[in-house]
Amino acid sequence: VQLVESGGGSVQAGGSLRLSCVASGNIFSISRTEWYRQGPGKERELVASVNKRGVTNYAGSVRGRFTISRDDAKNAAFLEMNILNPEDTAKYYCFLVRVVTEDGWSDYWGQGTQVTVSA
User: Fold this and answer.
1) Which of 14, 21, 37, 39 is such that its CA lies 20 to 30 A from the CA of 95?
2) Residues 80, 88 contacting (CB under 8 angstroms)
3) Which of 93, 99, 88 is nearest to 112 (CA)?
4) pLDDT, tens digit, for every residue of 48-80?
């Protein structure tokens, strides 16, 4: 299984970005998809998650501004980010929990995509 993230970039405060995470391989199911971020000098933090039933959870700092979604037919996950502010500047990582393939199951991290928000 390989993950490819895309959609990061540089925007001004108040702008929007949409991150994508696409998994390739013979995937039977993905239990949960999570987005993490790690800002300069900060620990990695959970931003949002969505399970296979579509139940979502958000960090308080992004609730109401970010929306997580998944497309199981395409083994893809998305993070729509609106009203961005400089505190959202970080490298964003996709994390797939319990990916089931013909070889069993495992968890997978994406390579990360940089988001930079200027004031």
Assistant:
1) 14
2) no
3) 93
4) 999 999 999 999 999 999 999 999 999 999 999
Compute the distance between CA of residue 8 and CA of residue 20 in angstroms, rounded to an integer. Answer: 9
How many Cβ atoms are within 10 Å of 94's Cβ, its own excluded? 26
φ, ψ (nearest 5 deg) of residue 88:
-85, -5
State the Cα–Cα distance between residues 42 and 2, nearest whole angstrom: 27
Beta bridge partners of 27: 101
* Inter-residue contact 99 to 30 (CB < 8 Å): yes
70: left (phi > 0), else alpha (psi -120 to 50), else beta? beta
Strand partners, 71: 76
Spatial neighbors of 104 by CB under 8 A, at least 6 apart, are none
Phi–psi pair at 86, nearest 5 degrees: -55, -25
Q: What's the token pair of residue 34?
A: 């999570």
